[in-house]
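Journal club prep, notes for RB
We'll compare a predicted complex against what the paper describes. Inputs for the N-carbamoyl-L-aspartate case:
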Amino acid sequence: MRDCYTVHKLGQRDENSMMQHVITIQDFSRDEIDRILNRAAELEPVAHTGSSDALSGRILATLFYEPSTRTRLSFDVAMKRLGGDVIDLGAVETSSAVKGENLADTISVISGYADAIVLRHPKEGAARMASEFSSVPVINAGDGAGQHPTQTLLDLYTIRKEGKLNKAKIALVGDLKYGRTVHSLAHALSLYDAEIYLVSPDQLKMPDLMKDGLIESGTEIVETAEIDDVIDVVDVLYLTRIQKERFPDPSEYQAVVGSYKITKETLKDVKDNLIIMHPLPRLNEIDPEVDASRHAMYFRQSFYGVPVRMAILSMVIG
Ligand code: NCD
């Protein structure tokens, strides 16, 4: 990825150095995204079983102030496959956050221990703020209902591997209000001339500001509450979990939970080569009976988190 360092704008760059943060997907141009995806493709064999010493002697710090399975572990394995080491904050309850330490101080300290920091935090904007206090690159692993740029890169990688990235007809389904994965993904897809179908209950529509951004970029968007309106038209069906933890009122969650469920029956009229994606974890959005169908892509998609995060780490630390 050495060539990446010669590009002027790659991720959010610190004005005073060549340091590279990964905060939002808007920080990347289409060329830069393509370069990361190409690098991930080169690294995929290593992600399966191999090892490399590209990041030997380097340390990644992972700080998860919200639960995580895939993001935390795939960053961990990506760093280790590249020969590096990982330190993890562990459960927030056992960290000094409980004593009242603020995020800025934690970041100032940890950036002295590690070569990069992966941060997941319940507050939107936390990663951006952390980048201002860090002397090493900060990678946003999800900031509240904000963004999840590394998930988006692995989503794009999955769609590209299936040959559907250019001019994709894609439905983003579920919680488009609080779901950070779809916030990042919708913008990224607009760089690839996608036709985007936004499928959500009324209460969980994508925020207007985001939709306006898509429209301004010339992206065709169609909004509907009915999955049946789109299911036989699209090439990619991207389902999401309703983000229970972000609802101010539990009764509002109860009103929308279980809005969409994909079963074998729902799939009877879909395009032959439709792919079904999901950032996981799933609740009831996809019936397990769908897992064995040729459309199911979500487990492979989560594996692609490894090569894509290897590419990201080699870019920011390498
Ligand atoms: C997503 C997240 O944390 O935003 N999970 C993930 O990183 N794969 C999706 C979710 O929690 O629903």
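Talking point for the session: The first strand starts at residue 12 and ends at 13.
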